[in-house]
Amino acid sequence: MKSLLESLLARERVFVVGSGGVGKTTVSAALAIKAAIERPLSVLVVTVDPAKRLASTLGVRALANAPRRVELDGLGAKGQLWAASVDMKSAWDDLVLQFSPDEDTAKRILSSPIYHNLSAKFIGSYDYAAVQVLAALTADDRYDLVVVDTPPSRNALDFLDAPARLREFFSSPLLAFLTLPRRTRFFSAATRPFYLVADMVLGSAFLEDLTDFFSDFARLAPGLVEQSRSFSELLTVPATGFIAIAAPYGPSVDEAHRLLQALKTRDLNAVAFIVNRSLPGWLFTSQAQGARVWLETEAPSALAERFARDSKANAAVLRVVSELVFTHEQFGRARDRELVDALRDVGIDLFEIPIAESELDTPRTLAALIASATRTQR
């Protein structure tokens, strides 16, 4: 039976998707650590989640766009582990420097107040920056395996669609309109009324700055468009896979199923569905079931004999036994509901990772988390 690690290693790039709070960052780090320990691979884990929890999860100082080596001392690692996190500001700056046709264009863009506002506050700018950073990182042949921790799923589809939106922007009528020579616009019958009003409200200096900025920014188009197109293609190749993560039941399971359907419609390869923080398997072993049956059928008489001279103690112990039996039954019902929800319309491998029994604060405990994963039969 294929393990979770084997499902991961079947690809060269794996994107981990799911709603917020289901342990995406932790599982991404754990998968990368386990792969680096078990295989002679150079493994990179990178977070696109703006919360940036990956550094603390791995026990290293702050991460940046440039990958940083993570030590796996004492774990007998066969491979190497690297980690990175998308920093939006430096990502945009690097892109401007990389794709500007000349140094003067880069300087004008980087010094523009419009650039600073757009790169820091414009909706979707994080997705665009992340796409460009990941395009470079995932295409880097120094890494045998790249594990990507994506934004929470309310943004995940935006992230996946960002390459196409970027290409649409550079070919849009809006950009063509913004980059027309200003004097041409003023002599245009169609645009003259708008710019006369805009001049009065915003001032002619602002309109000139806006035109100059977008004219310079448009010069980045060849490099940015080509990189985003390559990234879009990379998402669909067989070597790229997606893992969906959900909590045991509730809204996150529905969200994970929605994401899996969205991946399917985009021709993206879903390789596994992980139910994280599920009830531990030992609760449902034959030994556990046997203990419950004994408590339910034989314990009352055995306890009555033991506490024959103390009716109050006997009643108290029987209440405890009854609560234990009831709790185990509730666990069983929760487990059944969990599996029914998770298995709904799933055509890929389903794995369960039980609730961790210790703090997940070291590479060793993270690796153990993946070792505890079990595959669930459909």
From TrEMBL:
Pfam families: ArsA_ATPase. InterPro entries: ArsA/GET3_ATPase-like, ATPase_ArsA/GET3, P-loop_NTPase. Residues 14-280 form the ArsA/GET3 Anion-transporting ATPase-like domain. This is ArsA family ATPase. It comes from Ferrimicrobium acidiphilum. The lineage of its organism: Bacteria, Bacillati, Actinomycetota, Acidimicrobiia, Acidimicrobiales.
